[in-house]
Amino acid sequence: MYSLNPPSINAADAYSAAVKTIKKKTLRAAYTAASPTVQTKCDAFEVLATNGQFELAESSKFDIAGLLDSAMVELYDKQFSRNQGTAAIRNGIRNAAKNALCPYCGEGYASELDHYLPKTQFAGTTVHPANLVPVCSDCNFEKRAYKPGPGKPAVLHPYFDTAFDLPWLTATVVSGPVGTPVVDFKVGLSQPFPELEARLNQHMTVFKLWKRFGTWAAQSLDNFETLLKTEYGQPMTRQRAREHLRITALQQSGGRVNSWEGATHIAMRESNWYLSSYLKLA
Ligand SMILES: [Zn+2]
Predict the structure, then answer these.
(1) Is the pLDDT at 210 greater than 80, yes or no?
(2) For a tag on the chain, would you pick the N or C end, based on fewer CB atoms within 10 A?
């Protein structure tokens, strides 16, 4: 999970580029007539984003120049997302993902664009670059049309949320139902910020990261056991295991905070039960 710089192209330029790809003149004119309203909605989006208030976003009933919500969805689906005339904008947003990794989970291949506020409910921002996030297909699928609102905290927005840079993801190794180790993830801030904590928990829940991180962590546990049986050959001591796990945590997280790999290897390193009782390291 990591933050990204917002796309450099603004809402007006992206909208007019999408409208230009429409062949039918009368339809193009209607979209052009709707552009001030679209701009107003994009401006409102920016205010909510800057103030961290996406819960207050009001879904729209778009009806301008004969264009309804569905017309704004079509502008994205039929023009923006597939026309050659908007390819540079689309690709620019998608290629901004660091090492092509999805910012929501930090792990998947960012091959798609997600509407942070769903396009079916927020018609004015369907082609607003700040509402389009490069994501992996799993995150896009799990989020679906998630809409923040009262009692439904907003997931982190990679362009606007600084919480990506605070350490908050921790893990522990516990004994699972059949006595084998399981990694449990938890959200924990060093100081109490209940609102932020609720958002972080919701981020983990909406993208099913508890389960997805848990699955990947299970592979790390397997890998380490295999390593003990092969590479080291001789009995490994707890001390050597801890040193190995410390380096692995650093190496695999690249020093990034809130990396499931970093949290997993630190949890393995710190669990006496895992190292002593389960792996039986002396
Ligand atoms: Zn993802």
Answers:
(1) yes
(2) C
